[in-house]
Amino acid sequence: MRISRRKPAYKKPPTQNNRYRTNDRIRSEQVRLIDETGQNHGVIATARALEMALERGLDLIEVSPLANPPVVKIVDYSKLRYQEEKAKRQERAKQKKIEIKGIRLSLRIGEGDKNIRIKQAVKFLEDDDKVRIEMNLRGREKAHKDLAYTIVKGFIEKINQTVETISEQPTTIMGGKVSTLIAKKK
Predict the structure, then answer these.
(1) How far apart are CA 31 and CA 80, in angstroms?
(2) Of 175, 163, 96, 84, nearest to 124 (Cα)?
(3) How many CB atoms lie within 10 A of CB 29?
(4) pLDDT confidence of 153, banded at 50, 70, 90?
(5) Which of 16, 33, 66, 126 fits 41 for a cystine, CB–CB 3.0-4.6 Å?
(6) The domain that contains 110 carries what CATH number?
(7) Digit-coded pLDDT (tens) for 43-62
(8) What CATH number does the domain containing 71 carry?
(9) What pTM value is reported for the model?
(10) Which one, of 30, 52, 34, lies nearest residue 43 by Cα?
């Protein structure tokens, strides 16, 4: 008998892409109806509410299924979905994702290179990003951890002359790496 090497087909779980029940999918016998102008028509039969929606060329949408009786509204379903998607897009556009930018220093960094990195750090902080300052020590540099610590502290002090910062993470020395995380003071 031959052994099958095929993997079983993966079936996606059914997703619920319709948030509202519409038209014929409304199950209750009676509903509380609100028309497109916002006027409350009270509790009526679902069939009658559906007829009213079809007469106006609109959809009947169950907006509050947990109410007793459920609340339905006469609206254009495609416009409702468009408005909801538009609101979601606007919310996403308003959110500012804060990034952590990295700046690497070395024990033998020159003054010009240090000034360039200070300008970069100030630019990142003014854009409301956080800045991780790192210094990797290699070989015999690991014996001078105290010097690395003072270089990082001096770097932060120079940044503080332009932009006020707070230390999100204290300066730590782990193995051959000195690092800290700073952010703009609000």
Answers:
(1) 20
(2) 163
(3) 9
(4) very high
(5) 33
(6) 3.30.110.10
(7) 888 888 888 888 888 888 88
(8) 3.10.20.80
(9) 0.53
(10) 30
